[in-house]
Amino acid sequence: MRGIAKEAERYGNVVVVGQGSLQQGQDFADKQGRGLKALVDTARASYKVMSYQRGSNLRQITMATLKGIAAASRGHVQTNIQGDAQQHGGTLVVAAGGKAVYFHRSDYAGDHPPVEDTLAALKAAAALSA
Amino acid sequence: MADRKTTPRTAASKKALAADQQDADIRTVARIGREVEAAQAKAPVAHKLPPAATLRELADVEVQELDGSWTTFGALWADSPTALVFLRHYG
């Protein structure tokens, strides 16, 4: 997301939500999330409201492993995991006022939507908000 | 400079003007509708959007800023479009 953050912020907020402690969120912001607005949901209340998955089956572990190898080949190496490693996330784009425009529910570790899709969704949300 | 001509408006011309204005309003509403549909069509589709009730519930969830203060998702998107990326974990 860092790569498109500057352009995306022309259309609206770009916010990263983490589910660890406040300290872990601050560490993340210092080391990996520079330039992104970050929020911490230690109780995982938002993850529960969105019904994001916890845990993985064999298919999901296999997919995550393949994704991990592909990411490592591009130089993205996972460092120390902080927070609940079983918790999955997702991406939600909302127009001003609270109308959902785009949603991606992560199915396995490394299952992220293309950042271009998130940017396009934010542009569409901005058009709806105007 | 020519004298400005004033045309007395008859009841019939007022009615015609009102009808024209109504047509213009209808065209404006239709245009806005088309623009909204076009904007929605441009938005990529991933998974089925969460229902409005879920969004309302999410709006009230309190989360912490990195300075320790608290905010809600609803406050974030009240006035501005917002992309939320929920991380699996830090690291």
How is the secondary structure organized here?
The complex is a heterodimer of chains A (130) and B (91).
Chain A: H1 2-8, E1 13-18, H2 22-31, E2 37-40, H3 45-49, H4 58-73, E3 90-95, E4 99-105, H5 115-129
Parallel strand pairs in A: 1-2
Antiparallel strand pairs in A: 3-4
Chain B: H1 11-42, H2 52-59, E1 62-65, E2 70-72, H3 73-77, E3 82-86
Antiparallel strand pairs in B: 1-2
Task: Return the average pLDDT of chain A rounded to an integer.
Answer: 83
**Topology order of chain A in helix (H) and strand (E) letters:** HEHEHHEEH
Count of discrete alpha- or pi-helical segments spanning 4 or more residues of chain B: 3
Structure summary, number of beta strands of chain A: 4
Describe the sheet with the most strands of chain B. 2 strands, antiparallel
Largest interface: A-B, 73 and 46 residues
Can you tell me the residue ranges of chain B where pLDDT is under 50 for at least 5 consecutive residues?
Answer: none
Distance between the termini of chain A: 24 Å
Strand order of the largest sheet of chain A: 1-2
- Cα distance, first to last residue of chain B? 78 Å
The percent range for strand residues of chain B is 5-15%
- Largest sheet strand order of chain B: 1-2
**Main beta sheet strand tally, sense and closure of chain A:** 2 strands, parallel
Helix percentage of chain A: 40-55%
Oligomer: heterodimer
Tally of helical segments of chain A = 5
Low-confidence stretches of chain A: none
H and E string of chain B: HHEEHE
Q: Can you tell me the overall shape of chain A?
A: globular
Radius of gyration of chain A: 15 Å
Q: How many distinct beta strands of chain B?
A: 3
